[in-house]
Amino acid sequence: MNLKLNVVPFVSVDNMMKLVLTIGVERFLLELAECIEADFRRWESFDKTPRVASHSREGVIELMPTSDGEVYGFKYVNGHPKNTREGRQTVTAFGVLADVATGYPVLLTEMTILTALRTAATSAVAAKHLAPKGARAMAIIGNGAQAEFQALAFKALLGIDTLRLYDIDRSASAKCVRNLAGLGFSITVCNSIEGAMEGVQIVTTVTADKQNATILTDNMVGSGLHINAVGGDCPGKTELHADILKRSDIFVEYPPQTRIEGEIQQLPPDYPVNELWRVIAGHEPGRTGDRQITLFDSVGFAIEDFSALRYVKRQIEQTGLSDELDLLADPDEPRDLFGMLLRAAATPNAA
Amino acid sequence: MNLKLNVVPFVSVDNMMKLVLTIGVERFLLELAECIEADFRRWESFDKTPRVASHSREGVIELMPTSDGEVYGFKYVNGHPKNTREGRQTVTAFGVLADVATGYPVLLTEMTILTALRTAATSAVAAKHLAPKGARAMAIIGNGAQAEFQALAFKALLGIDTLRLYDIDRSASAKCVRNLAGLGFSITVCNSIEGAMEGVQIVTTVTADKQNATILTDNMVGSGLHINAVGGDCPGKTELHADILKRSDIFVEYPPQTRIEGEIQQLPPDYPVNELWRVIAGHEPGRTGDRQITLFDSVGFAIEDFSALRYVKRQIEQTGLSDELDLLADPDEPRDLFGMLLRAAATPNAA
């Protein structure tokens, strides 16, 4: 038990990398997926709200809070597609867990890497329930920062071992091939989206442009396919032609948010969609037939971050991979905040 | 210019105390008040939203974001009145500034101390426009963590030098007397609220119970008084009898938030109130007569935190009172987040 009330455990980028490597990427993804599934099963016990977004011409900054009544979590995350041109990440994030009973933060952590992991884990959880049984081959359209995490999550949870890659920039595909070498995949880099789709049971779209794009058109999508649509995740940013949506059974995280941010922003606001948590909880079926086209319209939801934050908190308690952050004022007498300041003036190392 | 893209400047509690002491509490309050006034004058250039609150039986956790289109800021803050019984603060807070153009955080700072300072500075800014001219004496009802900051802000901005203190717990008043000794006040500790109100031109109510209380009743409030109502700041938590509100000209920060959280939650939702920023900007008068009762129904608004965060950022750039936090993943090639992880595995100090 931590008796230093001023201290909040902090997981730096460096410690997050050490944590992921200590556990192993695939085991991390598997265990994180279990946490996400467990939290989706108790979906109704969470306070849910669409993320609080601040949009600008260049991108978006979002706060994503949720609480289960005992633990509160939120993530700060940005999305700025132009960032990569200046050597920055499109998406950076950090997150906080807090104790609902006291309001005190109990964890601050980088979440750029963690978001990549939780997004991939959530995709694989959805695919476990929605993809055709025995799927081995997946196309990945868009080979940026998220691609390898998706590949490894689908390998860990579904046994995907055949990848067909396409990116408008061939160097992105080459980077994926390099990074995934020796990790158990058979990989083909393709010259076209159509080529990448040949013979796959799953397609993951994860492109990054902030605009309505048409990565997949209707003619590319054969019966029985599972579409894992990850890239369309804010207003005005979609990846699929609307005709595909109309042929698919659509599964979403939190409908009020997905209707604003997901592929289904192209559809009428009352268009029927299925909630993924109801499938995971066993209230509704996932895939029901061989010819069914299933679509996971992923935008990312606060509960997934909550699961990831709690998982990381447990892991750093076991590994010690965190620093102590002097974040909270802790006067000897709680009402004496000003006195703490006065006493700091009296100590020799104060300025 | 900071070329280490992974690093965010962090102001610990220790460095915040050093910063406040280096600048001096009263000068800090004066300069912060100038920043708040400057931002209130350009009120219309901010994105405004009521805070995002997660209420529980014990308290509330809130996120307070705002942006002026160039800089984005938010504060995490809790309010848990029971905390003091366990040696914790009722209110703790931290805050973040980010660059709207990139979405990258540029400052993380403790805000427990900073919130106390900005709340007091905002109260004094309001009183500058609303209190009777030449006011010298102020009653402070509730002598907890906020009391000394209020006293010093009113001294710095208005020249208040006479304090009349009342708290249900006399040890709280004694703490105030001790902490304010030698700072230029004439202080009387009173046995009753009525006693504390004798001869004052301003009353500050800053009690902490999370319930509808009646700290001031109508008969206590004489003509010409300025009421600085700080403690009522969440649904179900008020300090003034509704009859006082009806005799007062009421000034608020952001009406959609104050109607939920402030004293005016006791009034009909269309009850007329004045916006403080319009007074500061010169669009509307503040106090207009000697017998007028003015009420600043303070709940705290995100723009005040934004002002405080920007002020602190400038000050740490001058004083160097910050640490470097490894918060943002920064791969050599932005799309190669996974490769960064792989390369960390290859470095000798990685686990």
From TrEMBL, chains A, B:
GO molecular function: ornithine cyclodeaminase activity
Entries under InterPro entries matching the protein: NAD(P)-bd_dom_sf (IPR036291), ODC_Mu_crystall (IPR003462), ODC_N (IPR023401)
Lyase as UniProt keyword: yes
Enzyme nomenclature, EC number: 4.3.1.12
Domain of life: Bacteria
The entry's keywords: Lyase
Top EC class for this record: lyase
UniProt keyword annotation of Lyase present: yes
A matching Pfam family: OCD_Mu_crystall
Family affiliation: Belongs to the ornithine cyclodeaminase/mu-crystallin family.
Name listed for the protein in its UniProt record: Ornithine cyclodeaminase
Upper lineage: Bacteria, Pseudomonadati, Pseudomonadota, Alphaproteobacteria, Hyphomicrobiales
